[in-house]
Amino acid sequence: MPEVRLVNVSKKFGKIMAVDNVSLQIHDKEYFSILGPSGCGKTTLLRLIAGLIQPDDGEIYIGDRLVNNVPPEDRDIGFVFQTFALFPHMNAWENVTYGPRVKGFDMQKAERIGHEVLEMVKLHERLDAFPNELSGGMMQRIAVARALAAGAKLLLLDEPLGHLDAKVRNELRYEIRRMAKDLELTAIHVTHDQSEAMAISDRIAVMKKGKVLQVGTPQELYMNPQSIFVANFIGGANFLEGYIMETRDKNAVIELRGGLRVQALKKGIDRGERVVLAVKPETFIIERDRGKKKSENSVSGVIERVAFEGTNIRYEVRLENQDLVVVVTPSLACEWFNIGEKVILSFQPESAHLFVYPETGLREEMAVE
Amino acid sequence: MPRKLVEKFDALSAKLFIKNGVYLTAVVLFFALILLPPILGIIIKWSAMQEILGNGELVARALNAVKNSFTIAILVSVFDVVAGIPMAWLIARGKSKWLNVLDTLADVPFIVPTAVLGYSLLLFWSGNEGLSAFFGGSLVSQGWLLVALLHFTFSYPVVVRVIVGALLDYKIEYEQASRTLGAPPLITARTVTFGIIKPSLIAAFVLAFARSISETGATMMVAGTFENGPVFIQNMKNAFSADPSLVRVYEGSTIFASLILIVVSCLIFAFVRILGTRFKLPIRRAWPTFEKKLSYSSAAGARNGIALLVFFVIVLIPSLFVALPAFEALFTDVLPKALSGAAMWSEYWQSLSLSYLLGAAATFLNILIGLPMAIIVARRKFGTLSSMLNVLVDIPIIVPSVALGASLKFFWKETLTFIPDIWLLVFAHLAITYPYFVRAMSAAIERISLELEEASRTLGAKPLCVFRTIVFPLTKYSLFSGAIMVFTRSVSETGATLAVTSLKTAPVVLVDWVKGNVAGVTGLDIGLGCGFLILISFIILLALRLIVKGKGKY
């Protein structure tokens, strides 16, 4: 069964290290996403697995088989391209039955598979249509159907929803996952959209500049990011710079710019260290400043901008030390505030994440380009 | 140009009657100079056909010649595409750095004017110093096989260029998708790649076919007693045109042969177009085990080996073989004789300057009237008329150039008797090269997103300013390549030149020399004459390439 294993895989294009010493293990029947900004090497990694390009170093296993020198047609995979790559001179039916035909299946078997997969993607009535007569969503379904019809147990998806409208994208992402799970496939899904990856994946690998930074379930990545980049890329966060003034049991007291003091879990970082504190916008508790004494882990500020986003309200709050932070609250369950209002923001020490200040600088560390 | 003047022209271009006036002039000139004269020429001389229809022997000879033309053209075009595909594949998909060299070498026969090519092949295949030397006699003597080899040689680079372009242009993802679906490379090429680039394969076939039907000068050198359409027309001219009592026989047989060539060519092209859209490559079945064996290692190596062998032995070496006598002549008294313009050399130098003058005139006129036409076709300026023009501009390609030249002459000499021969030549060369220029330019303009032009308009640019600042900079590379194509085609052209006038261009003089029509010409003279033609063409092309180097590639 197709467990996929990458051992120290590297790939260089000219001087650019597209994939840098990556090791990964993707379990059988797992829905696994590779997430990262454009140019991080995620598509290269997928194409290496597919055999469309060869690694410079390292080993790639599909099941127990070392596939480094196996051509793509012998890897037993299904690949869905970002642009779908439906053959323009063949209709939907010919596209879908292409895999079984070129593998030499007898006609009856090829046709049976064709009907099955078209049934699965609910496009039976359009089997005569050519790709240019289909909508984006339909093309995407045919592309998935074509990949499934080849009978592969490993499905590779390269930004399969990238070319679709937001609404179709949201519907189809769950549909693809359902199909992969129903057919007990191992799926590797490449995307730059963190909400898409979070919604459908069993596990996610976050990549940056050719390296895998963290692998984990969506919850793990969200609740426990192990780097500033992951904290920023998964859900976004406010990053406040400061120094650790003292440590108490599990917590560290951090002095932010302008002398503001807050607490967070110290995570083994020592006193005196320059740090970055990441606080997710939705972990702030926001209250009107009524001039009362502030609780221990809180700072005051003034609402500078308000945006109503439907489900949530997004506030930009200027803190006393002039740092600007973003706070998000559910629009139906919380009190609303207006521009210019004085507020107090507080958070639980364990809900914030503390990182040593990066050597390359904070901006560089968070950069997605 | 002073800024004020440019602005004035820009402002003028915004006026509807000026803008449409330019386009309409281009359309009118197209009809008046290129499309209608040959048709009217045939109609004017229609009655002369009586002369040949009553002569059973001549009719049979004409029909046989026309049949030979089509047999060779079809044979050569099929071989061209079959042999061109593996070579194009090697150039477009191969990974070796030597392929760059091969890519450049594949263009070499382009710079050799076809008349020179004809002589070069004659030397290589049937001369005593060529390949035949190893076989103790002429390996391929003058006749249909040598004509076929010649046509293959000069059309092969065109075919390879078209297919390489198609392979480089199309999305590699289709091939990758096919591979991930389980198809080995051969099945992928057969079912996906060729299916998608089918229009380019057809275009390559059509170009090779049209070139083969048209070629006259070089064919005459290697044909011997063998006659195809153009050679027949030329033979008729030589036999009958000088005698006023027999000139009607020449005119009748020319009209007769030209008409059949034109009609059958049109039918074949229509047939290829219709068949091309209907015909599907066999993609329903696959033989994975067998085709996989053919996809890898030894089979692929053998395929590349054969492609390279065909290229070097049948195309490249025979094309350049004339360099040997040319080189040899450098160390004899032929060189000073040539340079001093003694004996037949003075005619040679005159013809050479006439050739390049004609090439320059044809290029200039093409840019002048072809550019607005390219815009009309590419941007559908006149709706249905544009679609019609799109088909009509191709017609001169499929009309054999000798037929085109003859009918042009009949028209102009009957209507404007005072017209000097040099103008006839310019019109003939313009008509023959026009489709190549318009096609190259309209394709380039189509590739520019209309949004870029619209963006420029919304930012305040007048139509001429849009052309100057957006369209021209983005298409100038194609404009130069189109101009180079026109120039080389014009310098090579023999058939129409022979048909319209007795003025001699360089290829015509070389044909005369090779055919033994000029006394005292030795092999070294011909070799050196060919050498000069190649050298000057090469220098001009190199200069043009250096001018456009790296420009227009965005």
Describe this structure in words.
The complex is a heterodimer of chains A (369) and B (554). Chain A is of the alpha+beta class. Chain A folds into two domains: 4-231, Rossmann fold, CATH 3.40.50; 237-366, Nucleic acid-binding proteins (OB fold (Dihydrolipoamide Acetyltransferase, E2P)), CATH 2.40.50. Helices cover 24% and strands 35% of the residues of chain A. Chain A has a six-stranded mixed beta sheet, with helices on both faces. A five-stranded antiparallel beta sheet of chain A has the order 13-12-11-14-20. Chain A has a five-stranded antiparallel beta sheet with strand order 15-19-16-17-18, with no helix packed on it. The longest helix of chain A has 17 residues, at 166-182. The two termini of chain A are 37 Å apart. The relative contact order of chain A is 0.12. The model of chain A has no long low-confidence stretch (mean pLDDT 91). Chain B is built from 28 helices and no strands. Chain B has helices at residues 3-13, 16-44, 49-53, 56-93, 99-105, 108-111, 114-126, 144-169, 172-180, 185-196, 198-214, 217-223, 229-240, 247-278, 288-295, 297-320, 323-329, 334-340, 345-379, 384-392, 395-398, 401-415, 421-447, 450-458, 463-492, 495-500, 506-514, 523-548. The relative contact order of chain B is 0.13. Chain B has a domain at 49-316: MetI-like fold (Orthogonal Bundle). With 554 residues, chain B is an all-alpha fold. Chain B is globular. The two termini of chain B are 26 Å apart. The A-B interface holds A 50-52, 71-79, 81, 83, 85, 87-90, 94, 98-99, 101-104, 146-147, 150, 156 and B 171, 173-174, 176-184, 187, 191-192, 195-196, 198, 280, 283-289.
